[in-house]
């Protein structure tokens, strides 16, 4: 469980996050949705200390991350898997090496166990055949899936995914959503997913946080989002003609 | 001036992180080995070509300038050897390497910064500064002295080829010249310089790359800044070390 309270962040005089308070439960897929530039990625980066928030607290199962020193933060980060918006694969490593890297750094697995684990997660993202390739040889969607494999390989307690299915075809998109959902239930992971994708919202939105201009505008789940009268949510959800028709 | 002090402070703080204790040594060992190949072996060809022509030109120019009966012609070999060992091999090669290796380091690390690879390392609890930069510094400081010694031999060999191919100096005179009054300390001095330059030409571009931000455009800028800054510092350090060690 991650509890966020009163979190704000400004870059210069530009307020990107304003007084965000939210609780992400374990064993649920928590979605953060909102328009481009609304501060979703920045929120995720604040939670894990890649950006230092100006005010607010972030509790990882009761442990206050913001007040920790570098060493204590490192211990928390060992329990975190993070998929970056741009995948952030290590260019000088093959797909297999990328997925194995967190195992090398974070676990005390034997070489054999690591090989088995790498094969297992690559299979789950349907990339068993691509293990020997370098990131430069992958398509955007493949990179994304390797990024997910890398994030989940050490079995994290907390899993962050910044747009796991942007750039994927609808079918693969569903596979990935399902995968993340399964893992969340299987290991009781605290999962936070940033997304634009309304399919994901309807499929796996156990808990949804809607951010508008850096402020928490609405909070609910996949059922209540279809019933809300919140104007900003309606504009976001029913942006397309298709969804407008579907609503009627 | 204020900005220079700011960057100096930030650079020293980065080096502090680079030289803090690594968390898993086995991974560094592999990286160190890779870097020695990519920073050392890959530069061998260009170093040899440049050194060969450099030695040849020093020999021709010296010969052209001492067209006098009072100066013995073994001076040509002597001058070629001294210039190569004292200055051309250590300093000019360091400048060449700053261009080649420095821009490579700055753009590689800069690209890792803007594509969030450095953030990914940090999240996995890796000291990214040490992981990315330390192997490069150690590899260069270790391998560059070998490159420079090779450069000295090839440069003197370039002069020898000129002696063979032309009649501006006889081979006997040239060989006598390159053996005349040899002081091993000069080689030590050159290798001290080389190690210091190796440190500068890796750590400064690494600093510029590590703190690049924004887009690929900024990486290009960081790369240029890294090369220019390291060249300037190499030249200043060259002056200081020469003053300290040779006088
Ligand atoms: N390091 C930074 N310095 C200055 N401004 C920043 C920085 N990082 C983000 N911003 C600004 O913060 C705002 C929110 O950015 P963020 O990346 O969080 O958006 P987002 O909701 O993830 O958008 P998208 O859906 O397009 O990824 C943007 O206006 C951006 O310009
Ligand atoms: Mg984003």
Plain-language structure description:
The complex is a heterodimer of chains A (248) and B (247). Chain A has a domain at 1-79 and 186-248: P-loop containing nucleotide triphosphate hydrolases (Rossmann fold, 3-Layer(aba) Sandwich), CATH 3.40.50.300. Helix content of chain A is 38%, strand content 25%. Chain A contains nine helices and ten strands. In chain A, helix 3 (95-106) crosses helix 4 (111-124), helix 3 (95-106) packs parallel to helix 5 and helix 4 crosses helix 5 (140-152). Chain B has 247 residues and is mostly helical. Chain B has one domain. Chain B is 85% helix and 0% strand. Chain B is built from eight helices and no strands. The longest helix of chain B is centred in the N-terminal third of the chain and has 41 residues, at 25-65. The radius of gyration of chain B is 21 Å and the shape is elongated. The two termini of chain B are 30 Å apart. The mean pLDDT of chain B is 93. Classes of the chains: A alpha/beta (248), B mainly alpha (247). At the A-B interface, helix 3 of A face helix 4 of B. Adenosine-5'-triphosphate binds next to helix 1 of chain A.
Outline of this structure?
Chain A is an alpha/beta fold. In chain A, 38% of the residues lie in helices and 25% in strands.
Oligomer: heterodimer
Low-confidence stretches of chain A: none
Radius of gyration of chain B: 21 Å
CATH class of the domain at 1-79 and 186-248 in chain A: Alpha Beta
Order of strands in the sheet with most strands of chain A: 6-7-8-3-9-10
Number of helices of chain A: 9
CATH architecture of the domain at 1-79 and 186-248 in chain A: 3-Layer(aba) Sandwich
Helix content of chain B: over 70%
The number of strands of chain A is: 10
Largest sheet of chain B: none
Name the CATH homologous superfamily of the domain at 1-79 and 186-248 in chain A: P-loop containing nucleotide triphosphate hydrolases
């Amino acid at each position: 469980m991650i509890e966020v309270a009163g979190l704000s962040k400004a870059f210069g005089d530009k307020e990107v996050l304003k007084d965000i308070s939210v609780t992400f439960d374990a064993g649920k897929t928590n979605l953060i949705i909102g328009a481009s530039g609304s501060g979703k990625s920045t929120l995720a980066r604040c939670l894990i200390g890649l950006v230092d928030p100006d005010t607010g607290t972030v509790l990882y199962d009761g442990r206050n991350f913001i007040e920790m020193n570098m060493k204590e933060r490192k211990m928390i980060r060992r329990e975190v898997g993070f998929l970056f918006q741009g995948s952030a694969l290590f260019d000088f490593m093959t797909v297999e090496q990328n997925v194995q890297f967190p195992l090398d750094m974070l676990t005390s697995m034997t070489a054999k166990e690591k090989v088995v684990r790498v094969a297992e997660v690559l299979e789950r993202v349907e990339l068993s055949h691509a293990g020997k390739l370098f990131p430069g040889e992958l398509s955007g969607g493949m990179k994304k899936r390797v990024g997910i494999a890398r994030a989940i390989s050490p079995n994290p307690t907390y899993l962050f995914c910044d747009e796991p299915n942007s750039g994927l075809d609808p079918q693969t998109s569903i596979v990935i959503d399902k995968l993340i959902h399964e893992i969340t239930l299987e290991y009781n992971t605290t999962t936070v997913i940033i997304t634009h994708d309304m399919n994901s919202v309807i499929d796996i939105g156990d808990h949804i946080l809607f951010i508008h201009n850096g402020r928490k505008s609405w909070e609910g789940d996949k059922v209540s989002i279809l019933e809300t009268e919140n104007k900003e949510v309606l504009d976001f959800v029913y942006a397309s003609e298709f969804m407008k028709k579907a609503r009627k | 001036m204020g900005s220079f002090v700011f960057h100096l402070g930030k650079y020293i703080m980065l080096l502090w992180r680079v030289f803090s204790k690594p968390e898993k040594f086995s991974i560094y060992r592999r990286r160190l080995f890779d870097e020695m190949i990519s920073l050392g072996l890959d530069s061998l060809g260009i170093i040899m070509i440049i050194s060969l022509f450099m030695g040849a030109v020093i020999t021709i120019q010296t010969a052209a300038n001492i067209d006098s009966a009072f100066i013995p012609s073994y001076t040509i070999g002597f001058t070629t050897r001294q210039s190569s060992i004292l200055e051309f091999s250590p300093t000019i090669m360091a400048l060449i390497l700053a261009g080649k290796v420095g821009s490579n380091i700055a753009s590689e690390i800069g690209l890792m910064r803007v594509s969030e690879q450095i953030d990914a390392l940090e999240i996995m609890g890796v000291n990214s500064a040490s992981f990315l930069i330390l192997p490069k510094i150690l590899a260069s400081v270790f391998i560059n002295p070998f490159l420079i010694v090779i450069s000295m031999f090839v440069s003197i060999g370039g002069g020898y080829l000129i002696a063979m191919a032309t009649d501006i100096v006889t081979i006997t005179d040239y060989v006598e010249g390159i053996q005349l009054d040899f002081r091993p300390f000069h080689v030590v001095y050159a290798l001290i310089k080389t190690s210091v330059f190796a440190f500068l030409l890796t750590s400064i571009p690494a600093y510029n790359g590590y703190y690049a931000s924004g887009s690929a455009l900024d990486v290009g800028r960081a790369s240029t800044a890294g090369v220019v800054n390291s060249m300037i510092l190499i030249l200043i350090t060259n002056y200081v070390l020469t003053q300290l060690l040779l006088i």
